[in-house]
Write a structure and sequence with these properties.
Blueprint lengths: L11 H13 L2 E5 L8 E5 L1 H5 L3 E5 L3 H16 L9 E6 L2 E7 L5 H4 L1 H7 L6 E5 L34
Parallel strand pairs: 3-6
Antiparallel strand pairs: 1-2, 2-3, 4-5, 5-6
């Protein structure tokens, strides 16, 4: 059972967030860069509202990450289902992106507020992975390593050939 805006004991910030989530069907959480992680954003509510995995994206500016999640969320709202390994060439001005299932061992580090909302880790999540400026994905030969630290890979390393 998820948290609701009328639950007892919520502070004003949590209540406001939950009211917006209940109105829109999802909410985007943005997290600033830390010592060892880039900035990132993730959805909260897609699984509850649409039965669809939550989304997470790293290393782009906040407005871009927020817009990407909202763009995909709107597609999900219209009935589209994004799957593990799905390639999308329309999200970032023709650059190829890939969605990958997030390994649950990363949930408590990167999806904390979603875990609070769902009262645990029993929800799926997909990472939206973007390419370097030449269109190479992080696991492809020739990927510009200057971008490697911008998006940690949250799926099992042995799965990186999947596309």
């Amino acid at each position: 059972m998820v948290r609701r805006s009328n639950d007892d004991g919520l502070d004003e910030r949590d209540r406001t967030l939950l009211e917006k989530l209940e109105e829109w069907g999802w909410f985007v959480i943005k997290v600033g860069a830390g010592r060892s992680e880039p900035a990132f954003a993730y959805s909260m509510g897609l699984y509850q509202t649409f039965g669809h995995p939550e989304l997470i994206v790293f290393g782009l500016d906040f407005d871009t990450m927020h817009q990407l999640i909202n763009d995909v969320g709107a597609r999900i709202q219209r009935g589209e289902c994004i799957r593990d390994g799905q390639v999308d060439e329309n999200l970032l001005d023709g650059y190829r992106c890939v969605f990958r299932s997030v390994n649950k061992k990363h949930y408590d580090q990167f999806l904390c507020y979603a875990g609070w909302y769902y009262r645990g880790w029993e929800f799926p999540a997909l990472q939206l992975i973007w390419p370097d400026m030449s269109g190479k994905l992080p696991w492809e030969c020739g990927f510009d390593e200057r971008y490697a630290a911008d998006q940690p890979m949250l799926f099992a390393a042995s799965d990186s050939s999947k596309e």
